[in-house]
Amino acid sequence: MTQSKARITAIGSYIPERVLSNADLENIVDTNNEWIVQRTGMKERRITSENEFTSDLCIKAVKNLMQNYDKTVDDVDLIIVSTTTADFVFPSVACQLQETFKMKSTGAFDLNATCAGFTYGLHVANGLISSGLHKKILVIGGETLSKATDYTDRSTCVLFGDGAGAVLVEYDEENPSFISSVLGTNGEGGIHLYRSGLSKEMNGMKLLGDGNMVQNGREVYKWAVRSVPIGLQTLLEKAHLRTEDIDWFVPHSANLRMIESICEKSHISMDNTLYSVKKMGNTSSASIPLALDLGIKEQKLHYGDTVVLYGFGGGLTYTGIIIKWGVPDR
Ligand code: ACO
Questions:
Q1: Spatial contact of 254 and 285, defined as CB atoms under 8 Å apart
Q2: pLDDT (tens digit, 9 = 90+) per residue, 54-64?
Q3: Which residue ranges form the domains of the chain, and what is each CATH number?
Q4: How many beta carbons lie within 10 A of that of residue 73, not counting itself?
Q5: Residue 261 in contact with ligand 1 by CB distance below 6 A
Q6: Where is the active site (predicted)?
């Protein structure tokens, strides 16, 4: 990777107030707490009310970031929102953030790389700052997956939650955050996890078109557990690091059992792993920044720690990044 000139300098997050517990789900579909905990490790998730949208969560995450950041965000020159559940196809969520915070001179766009979207956003922000094109970029992962969930399908509705996490990436040549990255795509596996607005055929399979998520959980599980350890190895080799050099591993919080299996295969202790899945469910591209912010609140993650972020999801797509945590301790 070209020498990075970008540092992650601030973080904030927001989850909606409404809790959807396993007990609540027992009243909606034929499921039970024991099955959900045993297969996913999830106890509850937060979901938005009818009139609360992805932009609302992202705005609150940025406001939370501003409380923890002693400089201005008026000079942000690009807003990247990673989401698969934007309020509208356009205007983007990113444009709604510009309008809310009145940043005078900023670009703004939404990015869709599903659960790998936040790490994609960081990768793009690092590239744009290190090349000299931008100086200060907001990267936000925000999702309201509850609005794209079929609450009659017990194999998917127990998994997903809503939330948003935001970080600021700034020019800092002296003390950059980004060490190495790995990106990849497996388009052939796209049929295993999709959200279609239109009925169409893909790879010989007729996809449903009701706007909800559809997944073959077992296939996604197998793919992630097989491919993430390989990607992790590549990432570490590129950085000339060993697993022991990593302070924190932050994989996409899809399912706690998946995370345990990935950690076991990669010889990473669960004690060195940050996740948001237990109380927030799978929040797609918000899950990694939510886990990072939780790590700060639990006083685990500190300035200067070496951290591996690894997003993976629908597409199928993945992005891993090794960073030095650059946010000053609160
Ligand atoms: N409660 C009770 N029983 C259930 C439930 C439920 N909520 N859901 C499924 N079952 C039953 C099934 O009907 C099946 O019963 P049967 O054996 O009588 O047919 C049995 O449990 C096993 O079903 P599987 O689907 O094979 O269960 P599995 O062990 O694979 O777990 C799960 C399912 C939790 C979905 C798992 O496959 C998984 O987590 N996959 C990965 C999902 C994921 O991460 N997806 C998203 C990536 S994020 C993104 O990009 C948006």
A1: no
A2: 999 999 999 99
A3: 6-171 (3.40.47.10), 178-324 (3.40.47.10)
A4: 18
A5: no
A6: 115, 252, 282
